[in-house]
Amino acid sequence: MASVRKSGGDNLLVRYIILVSWAMVCLVPILWFLTIGFRPRTEIIVPEPIYWPTWSLDAWRLLVSDWPIALYLRNSILAVAGSVVIDLVLAIPAAFALARYEFKGREDIGFYILSTRMMAPAIVAVPIFFLFKNIGLLDSVWALMLIYAAINLSLVTWIIRSYMLDIPKELEDAARTDGAGDLTILWEIMIPACLPGIITAAVIAAIFAINEFLFTLLIASTSKAYTMSVALANFTGGSDGVIYNAIALVSFIAFAPILILVILIQKHLSRGLTMGAVKG
Amino acid sequence: MASILLKNVVKSFGSFVGVQDMNLDVVDEEFLVLLGPSGCGKTTTMRMIAGLEHPTEGEIRIGDALMNDIDARDRDVAMVFQGYALYPNMSIYENIRFPLRMRQVPKAKHDDLIRRAAEMVELGPFLDRKPGALSGGQRQRAALARAIVRQPQVFLMDEPLSNLDAKLRASMRVQIKHMQRELKVTTVYVTHDQIEAMTLADRIVIMNKGVIQQIGTPDDIYSNPANTFVAGFIGSPPMNLIAGTAQNGTFSSAGIRVPCPANLSGNITLGIRPEDCQIGGDNLQGQVYGVEPTGDITYLTVRTANKNIEIKAGREFRAPIDSAIAVGFDTSRLYFFGEDGYRVGVN
Fold first, then answer.
1. Closest CA of chain B from A197, distance in Å
2. What is the ipTM metric for this complex?
3. Record: fold of B238-344
4. How far is CA A267 from the centre of its chain?
5. Closest approach of B136 to chain A, Cα-based (Å)
6. Which residues pair with B13 in a beta bridge?
7. Where are the alpha helices (DSSP H) in B149-217?
8. By the 8 A CB rule, do B29 and B184 touch?
């Protein structure tokens, strides 16, 4: 008995070593990156790495004095959050129809929706520029919101659809015999049962949206509609050269909202909400 | 409360016919069980009554009203599913309340109705829990409470006990039967378990391959099976079916001779229930293949040239394997079936 327990302890130790090593592999670049944001400029470009930084708030001062960081952050958050809301409002009913209704061409329509994701964005960049120019939405956060929503809609629809396919049909049959109509079934049964899937889809869409660069660069011609990702590019050119510590700091600020979001909703990101509904 | 009528109902899925030309009349307040092997069309029949499937042809009536074009939500039937189908995000209280909200039952009445339904299935202390925090038996009782709470015209139960263990199944069976008698609601119950069918039903409908084989009371089905399918499906162990020939008032097969009606001839199947055989006699000669004591009864399997015959012997019966044995049949309880499988030689 004792030997069994001992080997169990060894196992646990090995497990911790593996997990901690993997966590280091994932986290060290991010932490290293963060230290760059708090080093003086010169320390970053020396040929030999300096492991322990000389702490400096140079980059921070540069951001606050010369840079409307609050505006860019606001633009990013507004465009990303708005696009995710639009995606969910459109994708949830679409996913429900694709998962549950039987109609001619259902599979084809489903595939068509997904196929919009397969196109290289550069192909549609120019038409989209003229489209937004004609409707007078250039250089506007609203335009970015629409574009981000359009880019992610197919993916969000597919993720939610595949979750809905996993919800037992019996639940819906039960609701129907209990007297519920389609909208009630969607709102009271399907959405709560798919919540982990919906949240996962929303987080993925938000990550894609906050990193979007090409269309943002096209549409946001002045700093009025700049988001964090495009504003970053400001530090890579011009007479000052590449300002690495500012880039690092801005990247970290852009990354922080998603990190906070993921930590807050972590428990919903895993499945298990349907547990107990139906015997597996 | 209502009767249910199925008239020439057909359900096909593409080229596969799930239910063929079905005629069925469920009397008001009756407990009717649809019994058959999986894929026999019993669940499809029930889903058509619920409105979850639409018949390809034929009429379905509940009470006097034609239901063919009425949506499931407007049929006033309550269904209990094999997998419980409780809404996972709602508490048991909210689960039971759901049909009341959907049917616009006045809010003031909800609490009273919910507590009464929960009381009937002994779920009172668990109303605040989520389905995930209940055991299988409790979940199934919650599903029952959700069905009875609004006093529907018809109960439909689709194998509600098959996910439960044997002991729980037996106690839930009694509970369901008692509840149905108390509420007097017409009930259609689907199962593949003959014990459930025999114990619960006022009448049993035996189905195979989408066709009704026989409709009758449990006693009737047991003592007068219409064909070899019914004879071989009901009873535990089921009736022995022995192929042989009839000539001049005698049925014979390898090792077996019994008298039969004089008008029978040609290929005939003999049916004899395991409890209608006695050790000692001159109807069957064979060897002991297996002896299975179970306490109150001993199951004996006798090998003949063609087939193994099951016999219920007395509790004390023991015999060595491969020993010769002679068996007698109660000749007043013999069944004969023709080549089409249907009963012959009945007066």
1. 14
2. 0.84
3. OB fold (Dihydrolipoamide Acetyltransferase, E2P) (2.40.50)
4. 17
5. 8
6. B16
7. 166-183, 194-200
8. yes
Cβ–Cβ contact A185 with B under 8 A? no
Whole-angstrom Cα distance, residue A29 to residue A21? Answer: 13
What is the number of H-type helices and E-type strands within chain B? 8, 20
Predicted local confidence at residue B10, as pLDDT: 94
What is the arithmetic mean of pLDDT over B89-110? Answer: 92
The pLDDT of residue A269 is: 67
Encode pLDDT of A123-153 as tens digits: 888 898 999 999 988 889 999 999 999 999 9
Is CATH 3.40.50.300 correct for B4-229? yes
Indicate the length of chain B as a whole number: 347
Contact of B54 with chain A, judged by CB distance below 8 Å, is answered with: no
List domains and CATH numbers for chain A.
2-58 (no CATH), 63-269 (1.10.3720.10)
Question: Closest approach of chain A CAs to the CA of B85, in angstroms?
Answer: 5
Ranges of chain A whose pLDDT falls below 50:
1-5, 272-280
- Is A276 in contact with B133 (Cβ distance < 8 A)? yes
At B203-253, the pLDDT tens digits run 999 999 999 999 999 999 999 999 999 999 998 889 999 999 998 889 988
Tell me the domain boundaries of chain B: 4-229, 238-344
The C-alpha atoms of residue B211 and residue A243 are separated, in whole angstroms, by 81
What single letter denotes the amino acid at residue B78?
Answer: A
- Average pLDDT over chain B, rounded to an integer: 91
Distance of CA B124 to the CA centre of its chain: 31
The backbone torsions φ and ψ at residue B223, rounded to the nearest 5 degrees and listed phi first, read -90, -20
Instruction: State how far the alpha carbon of A213 is from the alpha carbons of A77, A120, A207, A216, A229, in Å.
Output: 15, 14, 12, 5, 6
Judge: B88–A181 Cβ closer than 8 Å, yes or no: no
